[in-house]
Amino acid sequence: ILATGNSLDLFGKTIIADKEYPALNILDYTIKQDKRIISEVYLNSNVSNKIIGFKNTNSYIDKIEYPLFESDSFKYHNLYATYVLGPILVRNPDFFKYFITKLIAKKLKLDLKLETKAYKTFIANFKQE
């Protein structure tokens, strides 16, 4: 499963906003609301090159036991969850290749030249706010 945006909120115990709401209680974390973040992001990753994408969220995870990227994301067994939107797979050819390889459980020979060129162009022109 690839959960992006606030869909990852549902897998935790509770969501604390104006009051406490129950979530699916699959994993041991609570979502808390805070100041809204709307920004392009460029994050370190534990599974591929740096990740580029877009965040538009006012939530954060109270604790991350299995980090995927450097902030507000995790990998737990076959669940990959992140607040990064993007579209995350299209904008990150190395992460796409990693994810698809895990999905079908064998090595692929993918031609991602155009995707890689777009990724490198973004990185070369990225301005941190």
Brief characterization of the structure:
By secondary structure, the protein is an alpha/beta fold. It has 3 helices and 7 strands; from the N terminus they run E-E-E-E-E-E-E-H-H-H. The protein has helices at residues 88-91, 93-104, 113-125, and strands at 2-4, 14-16, 20-22, 30-43, 51-61, 73-76, 79-82.
Describe this structure in words.
This protein is an alpha/beta fold and 129 residues long. Helices cover 22% and strands 33% of the residues. The chain has three helices and seven strands; from the N terminus they run βββββββααα. The chain has helices at residues 88-91, 93-104, 113-125, and strands at residues 2-4, 14-16, 20-22, 30-43, 51-61, 73-76, 79-82. The chain has a four-stranded mixed sheet. The chain has a three-stranded mixed sheet with strand order 1-7-6, with no helix packed on it. β2 (14-16) and β3 form a beta hairpin. It starts with a strand and ends with a helix. The model has no long low-confidence stretch (mean pLDDT 83).
Question: Topology of this structure?
Answer:
Blueprint (H helix, E strand, L loop, with lengths): L1 E3 L9 E3 L3 E3 L7 E14 L7 E11 L11 E4 L2 E4 L5 H4 L1 H12 L8 H13 L4
Parallel strand pairs: 1-7, 2-4
Antiparallel strand pairs: 2-3, 4-5, 6-7
The residue-averaged pLDDT reads 83
Regions with pLDDT < 50 over 5+ consecutive residues?
none
Q: What is the N-to-C succession of helices and strands?
A: EEEEEEEHHH
Between the first and last Cα atoms, what is the distance in angstroms?
Answer: 31 Å
Helix/strand-derived category reads: alpha/beta
The radius of gyration is 15 Å
Strand content: 25-35%
